[in-house]
Design goal:
This protein is an all-alpha fold. The chain has 17 helices and no strands.
Amino acid sequence: MACVGVFVAYLPVTTVSVSLPAIQRSLNTSTAQLSWVSDAFVLPMAALILTAGVFGDVYGRKKVYQVGLALSGLGALVALCAPSIQVVWAGQALAGLGSAALLPTTLALISHAVPDPRERGKFIGVWATLLMAALAVGPVVAGVVLNHFAWRWIYLPVVPASLLAMAFAAKLLTDSRAPGSRRLDWPGQLTAALAITTLVYGIIEGGAGSFSDVKVMAALCTAVVAAAAFVLVERRSVDPMLDLALFRSPAFTATALIAMIGFLGLIGFFFALSLYFGMVQHLSTLDAAWRLLMVTTVPLLLGAPVGKLVHRISPRVLIPGGLLVTTAALLSLTDLGVSTSFGSMAWRLALLGLGAAFVLTPMTATAVSSVPFHQAGMAAAGNNAFRQVGGALGPAVLGALLSAKAVDALPGHLTDAGLTRQTVQQVKTVADHGGLGAVGELDLGPDTSRVLAALSDAFLDGLQLCLTVSAVLTLLAALLGSLLLRGPRHSAPRADSGSGQMESTAIPAVQGKQRRQAAGAPTLTGSLAED
């Protein structure tokens, strides 16, 4: 049931990403509005994933699991019936809430059902495989659907999957809670959600318009104030959502930043590449899906082998090495053109997937091993949260860069194409107000083909900038990792683990559990970083 839950949670990520060009054509949206389709899903996940784990600990994991499935199904149903882009956002946001509930809860269910860490590791491996499988299958599902039906039907599979999972869970799952006195950190939750939401809003709207706009400046200032308030609240909280003392560990700080940068680049890359396939190469969604499979399939196949390497190779070598491979892959993609073939692109996309496999798999394990044992669960939950923040920022940052650069470069390409000054000004006005998608819908008679060619060239300028910025950020992350990461600690925790929430995997599970139960301390925590 945990594997079904995580599959339902992650299926919309790439299913929607490759369908963005179809959504844009159908609903006549701007690039900024299209960014919100992805971010409406990722933002609630980033803002609430920590609190969802605590909800499961306090009120019961089975309940939170079923609520997550219900929200995922309801969100898909809302988007399925959406008459406008705003309703799509609402459906995506509901689905994101469901995913925030499912991600930590599914891990907690596995840990409760399989107390032996060695045996549990096998099930965690299957769980991770289903997560990657959802990302890999999503584009193919979308491609098949869009070849025969309207874009909205991409949401249909989640609805019956959620309902069936809820029905089986009602009979098969046993509810569990974490013993102890954990409390919900509402001030921390509210300030974190406000900071993340206003930051992403400011970046998206600033990229679509101007960063000097009053509402954009207000949003970014609010984000700064809310982030400062979050720090103050968490420092004074008796039971903080995220203990800031974790950042005293250089390795935890490094993995948090790498998680954020990694998913910023990965989700942002899917966003930009999907638009490239649709607006520049004019591929069908299914043809785009086969290309994106080159990125997602490699981590899916290499997850288990890389997991074994974590215990043999220092994270200081493994994670920065993967980031360097990712940097090389991103730079190799900067020369993409209108007529770049699948064969020419395939090895570069596979190389990107290879680098991601060597980063994503060991990242959580490294974060967990870098902090005191009693904070292991919070460390993994925090790492997940930073990962989702990066996923929310990806479409926002790269979408803003892409749109700004393409709109800026478009007049020059129109002039080079031999169009009149009047036509250039007309197209520029449409781009400034409606975005790149609106330019693609223009009908200028015999000039239309030259306008579309100029639009493709301008888009490629923006894509090249996005890939270069992503490569630079990834290179910085690699340097950061090589300086701050340490090898995992294998020393045993103190025998008295009464103040802790989690034991090291080096300690036999039964003994660790008995000590915790004897001390009356929690045996589980929201994200179960023991694995």
